[in-house]
Write a structure and sequence with these properties.
alpha+beta, two-stranded antiparallel ribbon, about 35% helix, about 20% strand, disordered N terminus
């Protein structure tokens, strides 16, 4: 039996491209299960690339298939209720201003807005913004 701390073929097992940190996988699965159970979807914007990414739970909340919004910011924007968009823009600009001043968002900012579910109804969502 090979100890996980021993070298295999001259390379540390933990730095081998074939090494799988099972504890991290299990922790990640638990984290995902908790988010799914709580009905918490995660989305992220990469401003430099004008791209969005979404968790599977985010899609489930909106009754959509994972990946169906693409990666462009417009996919997210197109589902936001038009009456809520000006307020979201203002909140977003505040977040950007905080980020430009210090390199991070100083405090979480809550956004409450509606997004269109796949069946056509509007869902009220709460998003909390922070920098990562």
């Amino acid at each position: 039996m090979v100890d996980a701390n021993e070298k295999a073929g001259g390379q540390d097992l933990e730095t081998s491209p074939d090494f799988i940190d099972t504890e991290s996988v299990i922790a990640g699965n638990r984290w995902q299960a908790a988010l799914d159970t709580a009905g918490i979807g995660i989305w992220e914007i990469d401003l430099a690339k004008n791209r969005c990414s979404y968790s599977d739970t985010f899609f489930k909340l909106l009754g959509r298939m994972p990946g169906s919004l693409g990666t462009e910011v417009d996919g997210w924007h197109d589902l936001v209720h038009p009456d809520d968009w000006p307020r979201i823009q203002q909140t977003f600009l505040t977040s950007l201003s905080d980020f430009a001043k210090s390199g991070e968002i100083q405090r979480p900012i809550d956004w409450i807005y509606r997004m269109r579910h796949a069946d056509g109804r509007w869902l009220w969502l709460l998003s909390r913004t922070t920098s990562a």
